[in-house]
Amino acid sequence: MTVRELDAAAIHDPALRAAYVRCRALNARHGKTYFLATRLLPVDRRPAVHALYGFARWADDIVDDLNSPATPGERGRALLALEAQLETGLRQGRATEPVIRALADTARRYGIDHLHFTDFLVSMRSDLTVGGYASYDELGRYMHGSAAVIGLQMLPVLGTVVPREEAAPHAAALGVAFQLTNFLRDVGEDLDRGRLYLPAELLAAHGVDRERFEWSRRTGTRDGRITDVLRAAAAHNRAVYRDALPGIAMLDPVSRPCIRTAFVLYSGILDAIEADGYAVLHRRAVVPRRRRAVVALDGLVRAVAARSVNRRSVDPVACASRPRVAAPVRKETV
Prior knowledge:
The chain is mainly α and 334 residues long. The protein has helices spanning 2-8, 14-30, 32-38, 46-64, 72-92, 98-110, 115-126, 136-158, 164-185, 187-192, 200-205, 210-219, 224-244, 256-275, 289-313. It is globular and about 55 Å long.
């Protein structure tokens, strides 16, 4: 499948192909939900998504890998080195580091704004020194770089049937929604890293504080007020998903099944958290394998249908010189 993807994307240079393969491996190993959804994209667009994810995964591992003995200072220096490589790679269009090489090539091919990558690294740097946020507004400024820009990076790859700036707020909201879900699912692990992404104002509204969360994590003891905090955070997260939903219908029809599948699987984590009684401080909630399979199969059916319609709607003789006629925007349901 890797060779087919690279050939379809017209990536022929051996070193560049190896760089994309490296990114694909990172996606397959670490981002199981994203990797599953990516397989629903047309084959020629998949390498770009692997490159975007591979870079984000690499930076995130520098900051967050619990298995690494690196000190905060060492992590900071590694992040600075990554930033320098990124700047050079984006400016010159090439790099010695495989992940940066693939990312620079993807940014060039799809005209992705370089500011999205630098904003991402700003948020990654803040994770080295910031352990909590006072309010959702303050958290939102962090998530612009850590999550919203991921959706904005993806948008040129996915394509749109409306002006890109119209779809951009929904793409950014979906990136934020996914990360808020991660924050809920991983709240215990993040506490182990010295961070809590639930705003202090939310905790205070339910009569608890960070120390109470740490006590619950340490002792395994449940607290109804903590459950109330987590339930409120999930409700906030669902509202962000609702803001993001209209953007799916604004995408190129052949890209919609991929994003719809990611939307359903990731928002389904909230259902799993609720079904498990909001016990995320003590164990990770997971979407049942059967549910994942059903959603993936539905996505595959939709992807095949969209590609079939796309092939019928494009004149094979003129497609190289004529823009594709986009389908009208329809209300998306999940």
